[in-house]
Sequence to fold (234 residues):
Amino acid sequence: MNIPTAARVRENYLSVKERVTEATKRSLRSEAEVSIVGVTKYFDATVAGWLYEAGCRDMGESRPQMLWDKSAAMADREVRWHMIGHVQRNKVKRTLPLLQTMHSLDSQRLLDQIVTDVGNRPEPLQLLLEVNISGEPDKTGILVADAELLLERWTKRSDPNNNLEIAGLMGMGSLSGGADQARCEFESLRLLRDRWSIRFGMPLQELSMGMSNDFEIAIEQGATMVRIGSVLFQ
Fold:
């Protein structure tokens, strides 16, 4: 894998920002509605630091160990860390204090572990419910029926936890199928969010969807967070 230069990372990030701006304009949305989460999972803290210097403050990791190491190496920088990959329950306690947002809540068992381990925080940890919108068996994510049951249990809990907030949904488009299929999948996630917001009386304001190859379509369909990796480091 080729390592980009600091100048190239900056150029790529500014290009992505411009594309986000244009996508929001086409969708009659404000640029401020969409956050770029720079996914640095294949690169070390030096390269992640170049992305930070380019202006990216939200960074995502897919493996807890990489998050632990990189957040320690960049402790002097005000990074908002996002976990976008699955977290095993035995790694939850060490991971949560480092995060602003977990995009990969995918089961009731994981939520129960998070409730146990979250501790006191200066601001609530944002949890995004990862829904398998593509139906692909190799994709992670909770089934729609199970997601509804989880949200119902959450709204009916007898001991509200002010350190946690289920803030929205996350989904990944199909690896194949083209723009039309991606558009339909992202629309389906947005419609689920709208339906569940009404049914459960929850804002669910965040929609994390769209990656390097389809983030403009995701913005068109209402994404508030786009997870950008490869295009930043090419």
About this structure: The chain has a mean pLDDT of 95. The chain is about 40% helix and 15% strand. The chain has one domain: 6-232. The beta strands are 35-39, 58-61, 80-83, 101-105, 125-130, 164-171, 206-209, 225-228.
